[in-house]
Design a protein that fits this description.
Elements (H helix, E strand, L loop, with lengths): L10 H18 L5 H15 L2 H13 L4 H6 L11 H14 L10 H10 L2 H23 L18
Length: about 160
């Protein structure tokens, strides 16, 4: 499968991608645990069918020391015992925040309450922003049909301002 369009080869596309990457860096530097960030990005990417992002976030999670068992069970987190209550709350928020367009009623009060139990205001700001940003990235990559399989951990490190 070949991409429809090389966003990075286009001046405007590269400029936009760099801005998006810098927003991602602000989230990475937030107090939201990195492992939670990896799980959230992977789950949203699975839901959205973004092969490039599933490849990216699977490999980054592994490079950061995440176990294969946990990475493989993200898609079935509800039926798994390997995630903390805080991670489960974040994954539930990710699913509800990602499926808004699927006639989902949005984020339930119960889910929001579970998130509030486990995360500070700064962590919630990062978590909500992360969910929004990964969904935007998924859509960019799915629209241009950017395939998974070739990502190497750290390959975008030179994009930062």
């Amino acid at each position: 499968m070949e991409p429809r369009f090389d966003l990075m080869a286009n001046d405007l596309g590269a400029k936009i991608a760099k801005r998006i990457y810098n927003v991602a860096l602000a989230i990475v530097d937030s107090p939201l645990p990195r492992v939670t960030q990896d799980l959230v990005m992977l789950r949203a990417s699975q839901i959205n069918g973004c092969g490039f992002c599933v490849d990216y976030h699977t490999k980054d999670a592994a490079a950061a020391g995440e176990t294969a068992v946990r990475v493989n069970l993200v898609a079935a987190w509800r039926e798994s015992t390997v995630f903390t209550d805080a991670e489960r709350a974040a994954l539930e928020l990710t699913e509800q925040g990602t499926r808004i367009a699927d006639a989902h009623p949005g984020v339930s009060d119960e889910t929001w309450s579970r998130v509030r139990e486990h995360y500070t205001d700064d962590q919630i700001a990062a978590l909500v922003s992360l969910i929004a940003m990964i969904n935007a990235n998924n859509r960019l990559n799915v629209i241009i049909r950017n395939p998974g399989g070739s990502y190497q951990p750290g390959q975008f490190a030179d994009m930062a301002d």
